[in-house]
Design a protein that fits this description.
- This protein is an alpha+beta fold.
- The chain has one domain: Aminopeptidase (3-Layer(aba) Sandwich), CATH 3.40.630.30.
- 27% of the residues lie in helices and 33% in strands.
- It is built from 5 helices and 7 strands.
- It has a 7-stranded mixed sheet with strand order 1-2-3-4-5-7-6.
- Helix 4 links the parallel strand 4 and strand 5.
- The radius of gyration is 15 Å and the shape is globular.
- It starts with a helix and ends in a 7-residue tail after the last strand.
């Protein structure tokens, strides 16, 4: 593990982390490389993410400040999909290249399994090579591409679907 990665502490998100999580998410929204979202979020909206036992939310701290986060959310409301979660991971621009995403996913996957999830998945813009490499390093497989999935700033965008099986869903 590099010195940078060892300096990163990952822990469950707390209410006092909400302003930092919100700021990092809004930075990502403005960057237009990781989400179709264009409306920035408020702390009140982000606060609602916390406290759902089936959906872990973790933060990464470095130099005594939150520099990244990862969160699980509902995949579909039907009961048969209760063990599947979508996830997002964001790292502050100032902390990129320090393996913060690696530290977050290394802690997040066991937290998801402990929460009873059997699969986590996400969608990534094809040109977001850093996120695709991050997911590949943590055992995600690319299962396909949704062509013209949605528009961002008026332009159609594709997304690559990634998934990772957990627990007894893992094929042996």
């Amino acid at each position: 593990m590099s010195d940078h990665a060892s300096a990163v502490l990952v822990r469950p998100a707390r209410l006092e982390d909400v302003p930092s999580i919100t700021a990092i998410y809004n930075e990502g929204i403005r960057g237009r490389t990781a989400t179709f979202e264009t409306r920035e979020r408020t702390p009140d909206e982000v606060r609602r993410w916390l406290g759902e036992p089936r959906h872990p939310v973790l933060v990464a701290e470095a130099d005594a400040r939150v520099v990244g986060w990862v969160a699980a959310s509902t995949y579909r409301p039907r009961a048969c999909y209760a063990g599947i979660a979508e996830f997002s991971v964001y790292v502050a621009a100032s902390a990129r290249g320090r393996r913060v995403g690696d530290a977050l996913l290394a802690a997040f996957l066991p937290a998801c399994e402990a929460a009873g999830l059997w699969k986590v998945l996400s969608r990534i813009f094809p040109e977001n090579e850093a996120s695709r490499r991050l997911c590949a390093r943590h055992g995600f497989r690319e299962v396909g591409t949704y062509a013209r999935h949605a528009r961002l700033d008026g332009a159609w965008r594709d997304v690559v679907i990634v998934e990772r099986l957990l627990g007894d869903a893992v094929e042996t």
